[in-house]
Predict the structure.
Amino acid sequence: MATLLATEQLNETPRTPRMIEVPAPTAWPFILAFGATLLFAGLVTSMSVSVLGAALALAGCVGWFCAVFPHEQEETVALAPEHIRLITDRKVVDRLPVPGGQVRAWLPVRTYPISAGVKGGLAGSIAMAVLACVYGVLKTGSIWYPINLLAAAVYRESLRLGPAQLYEFHTDAFAMAFVLHGLVSILVGLLYGAMLPMFPRRPIVVGGVVAPVLWSGLLYTVLGLLNPLLATHIDWFWFVASQVAFGIVAGLVVVRQESIPTRENLSFVLRAGIEAPGTIPPRESGEGRR
């Protein structure tokens, strides 16, 4: 094998670059994707859009099939040699700290218990509820306004409340909002407890800013389906501010809890051979020499 490779390299000269065959470019996949998009877009617009999308998708399938079978369309291109030179300024190898008794680095090495996520979620729910009630008092003069809007996500009777009834106290709506807010807050707190150990450098930035902004952006697209009443009355500035307050308080509570070592009982990872480079301590200069 080595002789064949050496002979092949000698036969290749800069004047006769090596040629390879690659699949020929085609626009049929793009046409298929565009047709599929129109096909589903017609479900919410017009039947004619779906008909056009189906025609384009069918044409894309046939054209793409003909470009591959019975013989794949290819073209020959010259292989341009690329000289890669690896340069580094590091003088030593960075090594991950591994606790005693471990032969591999399981990241994260430490995590937070379930109780930390529950405490963080409850603390964040209080901060979020206080800010939401402040918004209700400042805008409408009633702390029950945001509570009734939240209950409408799962309670059908709240959707039937008139404009004046949104500012009044309703026992059933309050109970629904209390349970919903507490349950979701605890689940998000558990998520923070599992997520924040993966971002040890800036956990508060991730939990207090990045995650609430992403969550608010997701709700912006589906809020009309989840809670139509809230979608028509929501103030996005106060909503995002309450999410950020939840994230900051929950993140602070979680990271201040005592962490515990990660359980290392995933045997399938060991069989897969997933290792962390740089975890084995370096050998001494004379070690291993006989």
About this structure: Residues 1-10, 265-280 have pLDDT under 50 and may be disordered. The beta strands are 19-23, 74-78, 110-111, 260-261. The longest strand covers residues 19-23.
